[in-house]
Every structure is written in structure tokens, then in C-alpha cells.
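**User:** Hello, beginner here. Are you able to go through the protein record under this note? It all follows right here:
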Amino acid sequence: MFFRNGPEYEARMNKPFVPPTVTLKEIHDAVPKHLLKKNPARATLYVIRDIIFTAFLYKFAYSITPWAATDFGGYITSGWQKTIVKSTMWLTYWWFQGLVGAGIFCLGHDAGHTSLYENGKVNNTVGYILHSYLMIPYFAWRSTHHAHHKATSSMERDENYVPYTRSQFKLPDEKSVTKADYAEIFEETPIYTMFRMFIMQALGWWIYLAQNTMGSPMYPAGTNHFNPNSPLFKKEQRFSIVMSNIGIGTMATILYFLGKGFFFWYYLIPYVLVNHWIVMFTFLHHSDPTIPHYRKGEWSFLRGAAATVDRPLLGWMGRFFFHNISHDHVAHHFFLRAPFYNGPEITKIVRDVLKGDYNYDSTPTFYALYRSFTQCQFIEDEGDIIFYKNKEGHAARVLHETVVEEIKAKGWNPDEQDRIEDSGKTS
């Protein structure tokens, strides 16, 4: 049950890929304008809700040791039973504080897209505070995240989860490569695979911020999100990068004065879980064996936006705590400034317009994570529409080249596909 592909994933594998030909204008015209309107009061209530959840959970955690000292009101006196109850309470705290923290990231993410409030300064103030609490460089993240949205799934310009190529692994070309060549690069024990997954989930977010791992290859090695002079940023953004660092430094100072006990018991473990959720949903949004990447000959904003996947991550808990970030991610790429609470309605409309080009996957999410981690190994250096290949050099999906050529022969034009108004403005 938990180790199976969703039927939608199976259907994509069995269907040769044809890139979308629907236009951005068709999608934008289909969505009623009231769904794009922000409700500042509602946004504020969500922010307050998550702050209250965080405070309540801290209070709950602070109460665990005193409760245990009273034998939980005299109801549990046995040593081993007290240990089990106390351990269960700590696990409950860590789990839910991790979920709430990931939700706080999502609210900061939406503030970065100016989808909480109309006023940009209010959005940035809220996003800065929320992300600084999570030790995230808000303005640095915001800069590269916006660049990601402008060039999603573009091999030349995307900023996140850019696939490695055959040549980067120094593999022989496709005609001369052998099984031994693939095995030399990719073969590993299951235990080592799980270890690498643990590193990605626990530390991957900070590895990306510190080294730009799986970021755009256009930047030199060592590029990071903390140096104001990093090539990731424009000259006019450098002061905001300093402010991001000050935000992290301020939070680090607060944690220092709260002491080691608070840091290790109350903050660190939920913080690691927050990093896990951030890496999990962002990786799965854009790393899937059945979803393409594009080079400039076939890329358009619409095709890039459609090259992502909606997933029911954690079911109702994912919707509630993560503010629809995985359930309605496709719609988010088409309407960056739409409030997340309207995401379900917008998704229904986008799905109806995209039809077969809409991507959903009901595969159990932790299995999908393992599947993408083990099967999304590299892409070819040639081709304008490419799919991930696995450790044996096989792609899960093929391109319907005949139809692609027919689309091009009919005059497909990326600028026309992305045109919303006469001015050619895109989302």
C-alpha cells in the first residue's frame, strides 16, 4: 500500500510526452478575479494562528518534566510507564512543532510572493520576521526563489533542483556506455542510499543555502546565499542580504541566551524536521521521473510552470499545516500572487484548462521521495525536452517526437504562448 506508484504516475509513464500548447491567457482568463484578491484580515489570522500554535506547543513542552515529576497527577507511577508517556509527549511536541514551523516557512514564502497583503513592505516585514525565526535568510531566499519562478524547469536559467548531466558524471556517451560504467558511478548499498537521503532531508536546505547545491550551474563553485556580493544577487539587493544575515544573527543570539537546554530540546529537533519538510515538498515539486525539463529551444514560462506536480502530502495535515503548498503547487506557479487559501478553487480551474497536461500524483509521499531520489539521477546533455534517467541509464518516459515536430511546424512560439495581454506581460 505504501510502496506503490499512484495511478496518475503510471498513466504518465505509459503515455508519450507531448508539451502543453494551451496559452497562459487561456488559463488566466478562466480564473475569476475574486480568487486572486487578497484578504489582509484572513492572512493575519493565519499568521496569528501559527504563532499561537507555536507558543502553545512550547508551553506543552515546558510542562512535560513537571508533569512527570508529579507522576502525571498520580495516575502513572511506574518507572517504565512514565518513561513511555514522557517520551511520547516529547515525540508529539517535536512532530507538531516541526509541522507548525514548516507552515511558518510557507507563510513567509507567501509573504515573499506578496500574496498575503497588498502592501509590499508589510509582506516583507512579516516574511522577514517569520523566516528569521527559522534561521532562513529571507531576502536572499526571496531573490533566488523569484528567479526560480521566472524560469522553472529551464536547464539554463532555473535556480532550484537543476538536474546533473551525463557529462557532469563523466559518463561515456549513450552509444558506448556500459552497465559497468553506470554501476561505477551509481551503484551503492541500500544502507548508504538511506544515509544519503538522511543527509539531504536533515541538512539539504542548509547545504543549498551555503553551497548552492543543485542550484543553477551558471554560478561558480562556493556560491552562497549569505554573501552580499554573491553573483546570485544584484547590486541593489546587497543591503537586503545584509539584513537577512542580521535576522539570522538576531535569532542565533536569542537562542544563545535561552541556553543549551532550550536549543537542543525545544528548538533543534523541530528545526531539523522543518528542514526535512522544506526539502521534501520542494524536491518533489520539481524532481519526478515523468516530468520534463526544457532547454531554451522548447522552454516557455507556461511549459515550465506546468512541469510541476501536485501531491496530497500528509493528507489533511499537509493542507492544514503547510497552507496548501503541495496540494496546489501547480496553480501557484501560474498565479504567484494568489492567496493560498484560494488555491483549491484555482487548482480545479487550472486542472480543467490544462486537462492532460495537469500533473497530480497520489503516490504515498515518502515512497515518492525514495523513488525520485533513486531514479532521478541525471539527464542527457543533448535534447530540448529531456527526462531524468535512472542509475541504469533508462528514462521512465519517452517523448512523442512526431507530435512535437508537428507543434513546431504549426508555428509554436514561446512568446505567444506566454502572452497574457497585448503587451505580452506574463505572470
In short: The mean pLDDT is 95. The longest strand covers residues 293-294.
